[in-house]
Amino acid sequence: MIVEHLSLVDFRNYAAADVALHPGPNVFVGKNGQGKTNLAEAIGYFATLGSHRVSQDAPMVRFGADAAFVRARLGYGERRIQLEAQLNRSGSNKARVNGAPVRTSELPRYAQVVLFAPEDLNIVRGDPSARRRFADQLLIQRAPRLAGVLADYDRVLKQRTALLKSARARGLKAEQLTTLDVWDEKLVALGTEIILARVRLAEDLAGPLRTAYEAIAGADHDPQLEWVSTIAGADPEDDGDATAGAVFEGTDATAAAFRAALGAKRTQELERGVTLVGPHRDDLLLRLRGLPVKGYASHGEGWSVALSLRLSSAQLLRDQLRLGDPIVILDDVFAELDADRRTRLADVVADFEQVIVTAAVEGDVPAPLRARTVRVEAGTILTEADEHAAAPDREPDDG
């Protein structure tokens, strides 16, 4: 799979832009703040329905505009698909596939993208929400229908939490709040599906993660990952518990544990007005040499783990999907790596069908990835003709 053409209207700092891309490496070079990352962000949106930089869509709409439009023509061998996303500053977004309206949640069925950026260090060093977000975005690419499950869970969670807050304000006791049972069952049904999907994801990533880490770091530090689950009694959001809880096998056992955990926490939830149990509070525990990466790994090891998570994601999608390789995007990554890791990373991604790289300094990008370089300046894609026109006159002065 490759992006053949990308078109932007009122997206970030682009009033309008069109850029052709090619198989293999594509490098966008420009000073910071010129719009390189915006191109990567636009492509990534089709796969994850979000940005790797912000949690809301409104910042992606150009100042003064009501909506941004992102269009991409994807190539799968001889097949071509045109995707379009309309990101509205307010109201629901819209989407089209080959000109026909579709639900926005349908877009990840057609686009698989793995994007690595400096912000990804937050996956290994940040709060549990960063690791949940990483996992859920990959889940959506593996099974696009889970976008709907995650959205429904979030809706039910908000409604249940609002009920808890209302009950707390009215001074109700747990036994007086019978309507909570209805929301509990909805939360359990949706949450169980998310929990089991995340557990399977961790299991499937384990092998590719070890391979990717050794390729990037040049060492075998036994990287591992597993879920810390609130339905097993952990509370990573409150106490940072780094001990993985029990794993429940099967839908019935997981649902029963979820239901029991909600019952055990009900009084505490009413006192705090917060839903304390469910996948919205779980954490993905990452280990090196048996120790949690967060708090124990060095800066270089943290970078290697973050890179390995993305590269193992790309390998997982490559092995399991029928649309060809995922598009690999490396957004301003090479400036953060030493020479050895730069070379190792370039070697790992070189055989993917399409690799898109952004960099402030072209020399930071290893030579094998510089097959085609495009310069970006102030929201403008510069062609070779543009660059020649902007170059100073070198002919001798007659005076």
From TrEMBL:
PROSITE patterns from the UniProt entry: RECF_2
Binding-site residues for ATP, renumbered to this chain: G30, K31, N32, G33, Q34, G35, K36, T37
Entry-linked Pfam families: SMC_N
Keyword DNA repair: yes
KW Cell wall biogenesis/degradation (keyword) present: no
InterPro entries: DNA-binding_RecF (IPR001238), DNA-binding_RecF_CS (IPR018078), P-loop_NTPase (IPR027417), RecF/RecN/SMC_N (IPR003395), RecF_2 (IPR042174)
Keyword vocabulary terms for this entry: ATP-binding, Cytoplasm, DNA damage, DNA repair, DNA replication, DNA-binding, Nucleotide-binding, SOS response
Residues annotated as domain RecF/RecN/SMC N-terminal: 3-360
Superkingdom in the source lineage: Bacteria
Main subcellular location of this protein, as a coarse class: cytoplasm
Subcellular locations according to the entry: Cytoplasm
PANTHER family in alphabetical order: DNA REPLICATION AND REPAIR PROTEIN RECF (PTHR32182:SF0)
Role summary: The RecF protein is involved in DNA metabolism; it is required for DNA replication and normal SOS inducibility. RecF binds preferentially to single-stranded, linear DNA. It also seems to bind ATP.
Family classification: Belongs to the RecF family.
Protein name stated in the entry: DNA replication and repair protein RecF
Species assigned in the record: Microbacterium dauci
Phylogenetic lineage: Bacteria, Bacillati, Actinomycetota, Actinomycetes, Micrococcales
